[in-house]
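User:
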Amino acid sequence: MSPTNLPNSDTPSGELWVFGYGSLMWRPGFDFLEQVPARLIGEHRALCVYSFDHRGTPQRPGLVLGLDRGGACRGIAFRGAAENRDATIAYLREREQTTNVYREVMRSVWLRDDARSRISALAYVVDRGHVQYAGRLSLADQVRYVRQGHGRSGPNRDYVLSTVQALEAQGCPDRQLHQLAGLLRDDVPPHR
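Assistant: Predicted structure:
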C-alpha cells in the first residue's frame, strides 16, 4: 500500500497545528505549546477502522476511531513550535500511518467554536477504500471487536474508555461512544 501522506510542500511552514479527536486527545506523544478545544466541520468521529496493529491484529482486529465524511467533530487542536514541525510530522506518520488506513490532510478547524478563530490543522481522515475501513457497524459488532481487540498499544477497551474520559473532560459528549463505553464498563451484553 502506498502512503497517503501530504507532500511536505503542502504542509504549512512555521508552527504546526494538529487536530486530535481520539487517542491524540489523551496521549498526543509530541511536544506542543498549547492545546485548545476545537471543532472540525465536514467529518465526524466514528469507530470505523479495524485495528490490525495498535489495538488488534489481522487475526483478531479491534476498532479505532477515524474521521469519516459528513457532520462535525469536537476535539483538541495542538499548536506545535516551528522548530519541532518536522519531528512532529514524522512522529505522527509513524504512529498513525502504520497501515496507511488514513489520509493525511490539512483541514480548517475552529478554536473554541469561535468563527473568527479558524486555523489550518493536520488531521488524519479514514480512507474509505482501505481494507481496514469498517464503515458503520452495529453496537453489538462494535462491542465484540473492542472486547477481542488487543495490540501493541494495549487492550482496545482501554482505548475506548480513555477516549470517552478525554471527551468528558472537554465537555464534548459523544452519545455513541458513551453508550459503547457503558457496555464495556458494565460488561453488559448489547441488544441485537
